Amino acid sequence: MIDRSLSTVFLGLLLVVALGAVGLFVVDVGSTSPDPVAFDDTVTVGLTLESEYALSDEVDLPRAQVFYSQYQYVVGYYGVETFVDQQRQPAHEQRFGYPLTVYVSDYSETGVELNENGYPVPESTPRWTDAETASFVIGSEAQTPAGDTVVPFGDREDAQAFADEYGGTVHDWESVLEQSFDRDDAAVARDRVTDRQQQADARIDNTSGQLDRPTSIVVGEDTDSVQDAIDQAPANTTVVVPEGTYEEKIEIDQPITLAGEGNVTLRGDGNGSVVTVTGERVAVRGVDITGVGNVTREAGDLPVDINEESWDASFLQYYAGTDAGISAYNATDLRIENVSIDTPASGIIVYESDDAVIRNVTVSGPDDPMSGLAGVLLFQSPTVIEDSTFTGGRNGIYLYRSPETIVRSNTIEDNFLGTHLMHTGDSLMTDNDLRGQADTGIVIMTGPERNAVVGNTVRDAADALSPGGSANYVANNIAEGNDLGLRIASTSSIYEHNVIAGNDVGAEASAMLPTNRVVNNDFVGNDVHATAMSGPLRIWSHSGNGNYWQGAAGIANGDQSDMSYSPTDPTDSRLHRTDGTPTLARAPALKALAGLEGSVPGMRTGSIVDRAPSCEPNNPDLLSQTEWEDEAWTCYELTRTTSND
Fold first, then answer.
1. In terms of domains, do 302 and 337 share one?
2. Displacement of CA 288 from its chain's centroid (Å)
3. Is residue 254 part of a domain?
4. Is 506 within 8 Å of 500 (Cβ atoms)?
5. What letter does residue 604 receive in the DSSP assignment?
6. Angle at the Cα of 280 from the Cα atoms of 276 and 283, rounded to 5 degrees
7. For the residues of 184-236, what is the DSSP string, one character each?
8. Chain-centroid distance, C-alpha 105
9. How much is the mean pLDDT over the chain?
10. Where is there biased composition of kind Polar residues (predicted)?
11. Which pLDDT belongs to residue 391?
12. Nearest to 601 by CA among 537, 539, 546, 532
């Protein structure tokens, strides 16, 4: 029996995140020349956890660490180019202050060489050197997992020797700061939403022909069993399974289509997967699957070899080897459509299979959300999952190292986690309806980049949306009636045009770096609109636009209120729940203090300020889909109510 759970991994990683700030080095801003600190004690950016785990021990990538005047922690950047790019971002100095000191890796006297991937491999660990006195090689063959990188040296002659061997030119610090480095960000994730939809359509079109292959064999007429028909069918033909129940487990190892006609049930013996696919361009359609096992197979029993040297070998072995209704390995262009699966473990497992398509599938897992594994488990398999229903079990949909996956228009109910992404970036979760998750509706973990979470509705979950990592685009979602609507744990991400309504807590800002753009969202009917964990002041407005906060006590000044709003302020946080507080909020002393706190980041650590709150909801069409539309009011109506008190 399965005696471990993905939820254990999930909760363990949450604990790591929660405790991660404990060892961080706190800056003494009174010192203008602080000494460098251990890189592990910094708040790090610029490298995904997957990339970090995959690096061999001898690789030592270029790094920078920066002490800021208004940020209490040291920020560690993988790549000098990462710092140069980020410090140019809008409002960077406003959030962090100016750099007090920048240290960079010093490859002088380390005997550094580049390996086959272009990663620096020094004979000894690089020390730290002051960026202002260092020399930098730009445009060489040196790489990080993110792309081209700048290689710093404490000695200019060493930098020139490196450039002579590996290419590039030598620059001083001022010249580096003037360079332009191409790095994808949250705007890229936003711009790729349409491209991802088109990519999904292309995958569906690519596999559509597999549903219309000519019939070669009919089970019961030409063969006695389904497996015999599969074994005898010519490639690129259809095996037709007439109505009835077939008590057998089958394996498909060639490009054929298995098609049920009428009410067709494939029933396993409760031991192992019912359908195993090990061939390319296979299609399975029109069948119900029951009798799925609930065990994990040994390594020798899997139809694929897992590299035991891989950093995640044990994880892959355990979960890729669990039983499922359909288990597919190395099954490029797999198509599963109009299939129903009742399972105590997983519905569908797809392992190292590019461009799979799963459509109109129903997976019923255990009623207990702590039992079973997932409706769909993807491992290193970019896939389209659409128009399907996943009910019960730990995970509705679980993605592991499966970039460029599109999950759209699905119904996901009564799981522990609805949609769960691990080490998976550049994917799209859109137009899904999630309800009743015991833990989280949509969760993105382990530091991936550029995921888009767009147009989803999450209700009745502990946490509705929890997208971690960086450079995410989170937009046009509804989070209603949850314990927590939105957990802002990612960095350098865009959160816009979401409706956060009727939750116990609307949003929680937990990211250690104040680099997110949170704008044009609507907060209505939440017991508490937003909270913030330790860290700097978060400013949730951009270019004169803010968010709509039910209860913001302002007079209309165009489309915005004339007063800033702080959902973490003791007075502001009660405005939508307590009669009479708008009058107090406009008291001259409190108004002056709010203005000062909103302009000086150091005065409100662990706080959120919206400097340009909207007078009316930014997303009335989305808000009308909730029970809270009538609770929103405009600045003018609030002013009129206040004057009548």
1. yes
2. 32
3. yes
4. yes
5. G
6. 65
7. --HHHHHHTHHHHHHHHHHHHHHHHGGGSPPEEEEBTTTBSSHHHHHHHSPTT
8. 30
9. 89
10. 559-570
11. 98
12. 537
Residue 366 in domain: yes
pLDDT at position 33 is: 79
pLDDT at 259: 98
Give the pair of three-digit tokens for residue 116. Answer: 């086959």
Q: Which two tokens stand for residue 112?
A: 């550094």
Closest CA to 376 of 359, 338, 259, 355: 359
> What is the Cα–Cα distance from 509 to 497, expressed in whole angstroms?
17
The DSSP line for 493-561 is: -EEES-EEES-SEEEEE--SS---EEES-EEES-SEEEEE-SSSPEE--BTTB--EETT----EETTEE
Considering only the C-alpha atoms of the chain, give the largest distance between any 2 of them, rounded to a whole number of Å: 89
Confidence at 595, pLDDT banded by 50, 70, 90:
low
Per-residue three-class SS string for 338-366: EEEEECCCEEEEEECCCCEEEEEEEEECC
pLDDT of residue 639: 44
Domain of residue 43: give its range: 24-183
**For tokens 């180019």, what's the residue?**
81
Which of 5-19, 239-253, 399-413, 446-460 is predicted with the least confidence, judged by mean pLDDT? 5-19
**Does residue 179 share a domain with residue 145?**
yes
Predicted local distance difference test score (pLDDT) of residue 602 = 41
Q: Which residue's entry shows tokens 């009058």?
A: 583
CA 294 – CA 343 distance, rounded (Å): 8
- Does the pLDDT at position 539 exceed 70? yes
pLDDT at 66 over 90: yes
pLDDT, mean of residues 314-330: 90
Residue 518 inside a domain? The answer is: no
pTM of the entire structure? 0.90
Those residues with Cβ within 8 angstroms of residue 445's Cβ, 6 or more apart along the chain or in another chain: 10, 13, 420, 421, 422, 468, 469
Q: Average the pLDDT over each of 24-38, 120-134, 340-354 and give the range with the smallest value.
A: 24-38
Strand partners, 557: 560
Look at residue 229 in the predicted model and tell me its pLDDT. Answer: 98
Q: Are residues 319 and 388 in the same domain?
A: yes
User: Exposed/middle/buried for 462, CB within 10 Å: 0-12, 13-18, 19+?
Assistant: middle
Cβ-proximal residues to 233 (8 Å cutoff; 6+ apart), any chain: 216, 217, 239, 254, 256
3-state helix, strand, coil in the chain (%, to 5): 20, 35, 45
**pLDDT tens-digit readout, 480-525:** 999 999 999 999 999 999 999 999 999 999 988 889 999 999 999 9
Angle subtended at Cα 462 by Cα 5 and Cα 564, rounded to the nearest 5 degrees: 135
Q: Find residue 72's DSSP bridge partners.
A: none
Mark which of 183, 215, 248 sits at the end of a domain.
Answer: 183
Number of domains in the chain: 2
Closest CA to 263 of 289, 234, 290, 287: 287
Q: For residue 30, is pLDDT > 60?
A: no
Is 311 within a domain?
Answer: yes
Contact 352, 374 (CB under 8 A): no
Torsion angle in degrees (nearest 10) through CA of 474, 479, 482, 488:
20
Nearest to 62 by CA among 13, 10, 14, 127: 127
Q: How far apart are CA 436 and CA 217, in angstroms?
A: 44
- Judge whether residue 172 has pLDDT over 70: yes
Q: State the pLDDT at residue 170.
A: 98
Question: 3-state DSSP call for residue 73?
Answer: strand
The reply to whether 65 and 166 lie within a common domain is yes
> Which of 339, 371, 398 corresponds to the end of one domain?
398
